[in-house]
Write a structure and sequence with these properties.
mainly alpha, 3 helices, 192 residues
């Protein structure tokens, strides 16, 4: 820089200093009092910085850490909840599948049991019918025997009365045989 430039800068600086001094005087600025207030302000600021701001900053840092921890815990809980929900869904799906399998198995067993019981009922009905036929046949045979005996007696009695004499044992046998033969032919014809 040249000398001339330095002189210009010096004159500007002097003008600014004079203007500042005039302004300070005009507004009632008292330099010793201003400096004392500035020193007091710096002392109060230093005391507040060391005794008030450090605990406040420490408290705010602790709070920030607690919030960060809470957020991490909330995220962890959210992930665990999602995992638990996923496991719950898997368990429900497996339970539904097992229930369906058990229902299908129960239906199959019920169908088999129904078929077995139906077969047992058919077999029992056939047995009852066979026994009824057997009993009917036995009753029929018994009645036929009774009827044969009764017919033989009636034939002998009737013949004795018609002839007017007592029949010999040989005549009775012959008449009984003929009556039974006739009765047997009539029974066969009626059963067909």
């Amino acid at each position: 820089m040249s000398m001339q430039e330095l002189l210009i800068i010096g004159s500007i600086t002097t003008d600014l200093a004079n203007t500042a001094a005039e302004t300070a005087t005009r507004f009632g600025l008292n330099w010793p009092q201003f400096i004392a207030q500035a020193v007091n302000f710096c002392i109060v600021a230093a005391v507040l910085w060391f005794f008030a701001s450090k605990p406040i900053i420490r408290m705010l840092e602790e709070r920030r850490q607690r919030i960060a921890q809470s957020m991490a815990d909330a995220q962890r809980v959210k992930e665990e909840l999602a995992k638990a929900e996923s496991q719950r869904q898997e368990i429900l799906t497996k339970a539904n599948e097992e229930a369906k399998a058990l229902i299908d198995e129960a239906r199959t067993l019920a169908s088999q049991l129904r078929e077995q019981e139906a077969q047992k009922a058919v077999t029992a009905a056939e047995e009852i019918i066979a026994k009824a036929k057997e009993a009917t046949r036995a009753d029929y045979d018994k009645m036929l025997e009774q009827l044969k005996g009764e017919v033989s007696r009636l034939v002998v009695e009737t013949t004795s009365k018609v002839i007017g004499r007592t029949l010999s044992a040989e005549d009775q046998k012959r008449l009984n045989a003929e009556a039974l033969l006739q009765l047997g032919q009539n029974a066969e014809t009626s059963s067909k």
